[in-house]
Amino acid sequence: MKRSLTLLALLLYSASAWADEPGFGQRPLDVSLDGHRSDWLFNVTTVSITVLFLIMAGILVWTSLVHRDTPARKAHYEHGIGKKHLMLTAVISSIIFFGVDGTLLYNSFTDLSAAFYKFPTKSENPVVIEVYAQQWAWNFRYAGADGVFNTPDDIVTLNEMHIPVDTPVMLKMKSKDVIHSFYLPNFRTKQDAVPGAITQLWFQATQAGNFEIGCAQHCGVSHYKMRGFLTISPKEGFAQWLKDEAIEAKGRYDEADADAHWGWDWEI
Ligand SMILES: [Cu+2]
Q1: What does residue 224 show for φ and ψ, rounded to 5 degrees?
Q2: 37: Cβ contacts below 8 Å, ≥ 6 apart
Q3: What pTM was computed for the model?
């Protein structure tokens, strides 16, 4: 008894310490056009499973009390499950399955086609960036003034991605070594970067600010250090950044440095 009380006290203590963490119970700020879709799914799933859990746990507790053992009670096995019970079970299960799971499934597919797979077209003038993942960093490449990737005027950054607000951004990714996953918590989106393949991701920011880029795929001992920084600027600020970086890029370009020429032709 004493031991279980100590254990309970310890558990309560650690739970309260956890709850005191800054940001507990809060999601990262959503600064994206479509992040609300994931949040909606998350909320509906959480509410649904909480309600179902309470109903099921309630029934379990109620039946354990009503049918508990008493000296006068004898076990009897002759009453099998009747057709009525089977029907009732089937109806309740169907309501839960088609109601809850059906809603989630329908909305997931709608969101995927209306947002995730609805890549921006050329006429929408997306900002296009090549992302090259490696253990344990993110390399970014902008085409520069000529609009062609892997040329001397490319702007190449390490762990630093700049994008404008209110403009679609299109990424194409590759990996140098193992599978990584480009993760933007503030956009509720992520995509794997896979060696030997090109994957793509698009998103759009609704407000300016500084945010983080994570790697959501365990990719080696320093996976936890694979952290990038995302700067979202007003359109003029982004244009200015591109201009400034273009001057720097020309000075930094080294024809002989083969490792630095990891870019590829943008393939649609
Ligand atoms: Cu990684």
Answers
A1: -65, -20
A2: 107, 111, 115, 188
A3: 0.82
Per residue in 159-210, pLDDT (tens digit) is 999 999 999 999 999 999 999 999 999 999 999 999 999 999 999 999 999 9
**If you classify domain 122-254 with CATH, what class do you get?**
mainly beta
Report the separation in Å between the CA atom of 199 and the middle of ligand 1, taken as the mean of its atom positions: 15
Distance 38 CA to ligand 1 centre (A): 23
Domain boundaries, the chain: 30-65+82-118, 122-254
pLDDT at residue number 34: 95
DSSP state of 94: H
For ligand 1, the distance from its centroid to the CA atom of residue 260, given in whole angstroms, is 19
Residue 95 three-state SS: helix
Name the residues around ion ligand 1, CB cutoff 5 A: 180, 215, 219, 226
pLDDT, tens digit, 9 for 90 and up, residues 107-133: 999 999 999 999 999 899 999 999 999
